[in-house]
Write a structure and sequence with these properties.
Helices cover about 30% and strands about 30% of the residues. With about 180 residues, it is α+β, with helices and mostly antiparallel strands. Strands 1-2-3-4-5-6-8-7 form an 8-stranded mixed sheet. It is globular and about 45 Å long.
Length: about 180
């Protein structure tokens, strides 16, 4: 574990964190919410490529989930980033992202980080472009999934007139010297 501040610790998630990660994602009102079961699986099967921030009581207050692309083993794909409302605005998301990149870089020789961001998510755009700047890496952007690829659910919260936005791929790299980062 590494300290972000004296009251928060960054650690690998455990299966017992799954419900809290689901709640943090749900409460973000920005992320696509996955099933609670998927967060349990994520904490079991992808703990090596994910991080969680814990408060003084050991409760999760933020997380980053990711995985290494099977066809590009030096590329980390960041799936979701979320921080509890009470801990936002303090740089925790960036610290989590740095800690994860440092760990995966040291363990697997990470050279590239990828994520997708919808055009209206300015907070994530700032988070990942700032990450690239801190690490002297470039950012390439291209639409990965057009809006028409997503299913329409007339009964869903977005309704039939509010389809899913396109997902823009952010490819950040090359990443070098990750083992020397401080969280």
């Amino acid at each position: 574990m590494s300290a972000v501040r004296t009251d928060l610790q960054i650690d690998r998630p455990m299966v017992s964190d799954g419900a809290a990660l689901w709640r943090i994602a749900r409460d973000s009102k920005v992320l696509d919410l996955n099933s609670s079961y998927s967060y349990l699986l994520w904490c079991r099967d992808f703990a090596a490529t994910s991080v969680v921030a814990r408060d003084a009581d050991g409760d999760p207050v933020g997380f980053v989930t990711g995985y290494v692309r099977p066809d590009r083993p030096r590329t980390l794909v960041v799936w979701q980033v979320a921080v509890d409302a009470g801990h936002q605005g303090r740089g925790l998301a960036g610290a989590l992202l740095d800690a994860l990149a440092r760990r995966v870089g040291a363990e697997q020789g990470l050279t590239t980080l990828e994520t997708t961001i919808t055009p209206d998510n300015s907070a994530s755009q700032r988070l990942f472009t700032s990450f690239a700047r801190r690490h002297g890496a470039s950012v390439e952007r291209e639409v990965l999934f057009e809006a028409d690829l997503f299913p329409s659910d007339p009964a869903g919260p977005a309704g039939p007139d509010d389809p899913h936005d396109p997902e823009v791929l952010y490819r950040i790299g090359p990443l070098t010297g990750l083992s020397g980062l401080t969280g």
